[in-house]
Write a structure and sequence with these properties.
The protein is of the alpha/beta class. The protein is built from nine helices and seven strands. The strands form two sheets. A five-stranded parallel β-sheet has the order 2-4-7-5-6. A two-stranded antiparallel sheet has the order 1-3. Helix 4 links the parallel strand 5 and strand 6. Helix 3 packs across helix 4. The relative contact order is 0.12.
Length: about 300
């Protein structure tokens, strides 16, 4: 029977170790199956988009570089042949699907072998329950530090999908959080230590009471209400006047003196027109002739 260290939700180690289920943790480690499972996993991660151009895909080279005979040089048919600079690539990668698969029972055997290998090394830790009702990265980091796993690659396996636990470990670069049923052999071998929830191994789970929840570390505790209150501005503010005292009436702006009216300009044209009497119809032509004769004659050519 293989045993693993047992911890409380707060990270305190219990006196008695946890006895791992004998039907699964029987010490079997099949290394060839582990190698096959890891190889298949890595193959399935490949995109398969690498591509090189053969001589048929390189542009140019349609014309024969020189005539077949008479030059003393080796005969050539195209400048895009593989032995030419700028020519095509021989046996280069082309887009393909690297996906491979293994039987279901082989996957199960590989997963079982990986967990047994970590259990035999003493790198498997069992926690009674992950008490995460809300996401808190500092709480998960403190739990792993209390287990002595700070700074190491850790795989955290929960009994079921725990969103708060997943969000708590998402910001930790060396921590991977997933349900116990979804862990593959590669995930277990990638981690240096595995932390498993007790309910995932026994199939039983219970909710912790409020008093059983672990407390946050001091450096991660939220500030008090007084510390969060905004500081008062320098200098005491003047109290606003009460209604009985009456608010001071705003100062009325001094009215600007009205500008003096400008004296009206006498229009020369209007007065001149008013002074001249309007000619009558009967004596209009005679008056115009008389005015023409009275006007002085200009000096010059006659």
């Amino acid at each position: 029977m293989i045993e693993a260290p047992h911890y409380t939700p707060a990270g305190a180690r219990r006196d008695a170790s946890f006895a791992l289920p004998a039907d699964f943790f029987d010490g079997t480690v099949n290394e060839p199956v582990l190698h096959q499972a890891v190889k298949v996993y890595l193959n399935n991660q490949r995109q398969g988009t690498a591509k090189t151009k053969t001589r048929s895909f390189v542009s140019g080279g349609n014309q024969k570089p020189w005539k077949q005979k008479g030059t003393g040089r080796a005969r050539q048919g195209s400048t895009r042949a593989p032995h030419w600079r700028g020519g095509g690539t021989v046996f280069g990668p082309i887009p393909r699907d690297y996906r491979t698969d293994v039987p279901r029972k082989v996957k199960q055997l590989a997963r079982k072998s990986a967990l047994n290998a970590r259990a035999r090394e003493g790198a498997l830790h069992v926690v009674e329950q992950f008490a995460f009702r809300t996401p808190k990265t500092a709480r998960l980091a403190a739990l792993l530090a209390s287990l002595g796993l700070a700074g190491r690659k850790v795989l955290v396996l929960s009994a079921a999908g725990n969103d708060a636990l997943h969000l708590s470990g998402r910001n930790l670069p060396s921590v991977e959080v997933m349900p116990y049923a979804q862990a593959s052999a590669y995930d277990v071998l990638w981690a240096e230590a595995v932390v498993v929830e007790e309910g995932a191994l026994t199939g039983e789970s219970r909710e912790l009471a409020a008093e059983e929840l672990p407390a946050l570390p001091e450096h991660a505790a939220r500030p008090s209400a007084e510390a969060r209150a905004p500081k008062a501005a320098k200098g005491t503010a003047k109290p606003a006047p009460s209604r009985s005292e009456g608010a001071a009436a705003p100062k009325a702006k001094a009215a600007k003196p009205a500008k003096a009216a400008k004296p009206a300009k006498t229009a020369k044209k209007s007065t001149a027109k008013a002074a001249k009497p309007a000619p009558t119809r009967s004596g209009g032509k005679s008056a115009a002739k008389a005015a023409k004769k009275a006007a002085p004659k200009k000096k010059g050519k006659k």
